[in-house]
Design brief:
It comes from Mycolicibacterium chubuense (strain NBB4). With 191 residues, this protein is mainly α. It is 80% helix and 0% strand. It has one domain: Tetracycline Repressor, domain 2 (Orthogonal Bundle), CATH 1.10.357.10. The model has no long low-confidence stretch (mean pLDDT 88).
Length: 191
């Protein structure tokens, strides 16, 4: 009975290590042999995670965003008012992306299945921000704004941050860009 728990724990550890490797160095240049050597496991172990390198990259990308979402939501759960919840959410997204190297972001953008996962998570994040804004409006903490428009504005900026356009134009790293976005958004919609 302890075998499935161990197998699940080992699987999570491998995905965590794989995500850390990809975030630090990207993934396009690696072969399955390279990945196995870097993770100190066999290729057959990697094949228990996914059937190909492409599927492994997709699975690692999903794992990254799932883990990031859990961490971001934990930050949000610790806040009581709407302004702080939005700030915690956006700064949490920035913190989750902070370890992502330029190479990882370039590889993510160049690999359509991984890019689609990122884009899906951006849409989910925009919906979440819209919910947080609507909650703040309902509670009287924010003026009556069009929550969907504000969330779309946030989503557009999130895409620019992800593509490193904000860093290239302003010099802000991702985490700082998300903090600035949170400050501008929450300041602009305060009651």
């Amino acid at each position: 009975m302890t075998r499935p728990a161990f197998a699940t724990r080992r699987r999570i550890e491998l995905f965590d290590a794989l995500v850390a490797l990809f975030l630090a160095e990207g993934f396009a240049q690696f072969t399955l042999d390279d990945i196995a050597a870097r993770l100190r496991c066999s290729k057959s172990t990697l094949y228990t995670l996914a059937a190909s390198k492409e599927q492994l990259v997709q699975a690692a990308t999903v794992h990254f965003f799932r883990t990031a979402t859990d961490l971001v939501e934990a930050r949000v759960g610790g806040e009581v008012n709407a302004r702080e919840r939005i700030a915690a959410y956006l700064s949490g997204v920035g913190a989750a992306l902070d370890p992502a190297s330029d190479q990882f972001m370039a590889d993510l953008d160049a690999f359509p299945p991984a890019r689609a996962i990122y884009e899906q998570n951006t849409r989910i994040a925009a919906r979440r921000v819209r919910e947080l804004i609507a909650d703040g409006v309902a509670a009287g903490e924010f003026r009556d704004v069009h929550a969907a428009f504000a969330a779309d504005l946030v989503a557009a900026m999130m895409v620019r941050i992800q593509r490193r356009e904000v860093r290239d134009h302003s010099g802000l790293d991702d985490a700082d860009a998300y903090r600035e976005l949170a400050a501008i958004l929450t300041g602009g919609i305060q009651a």
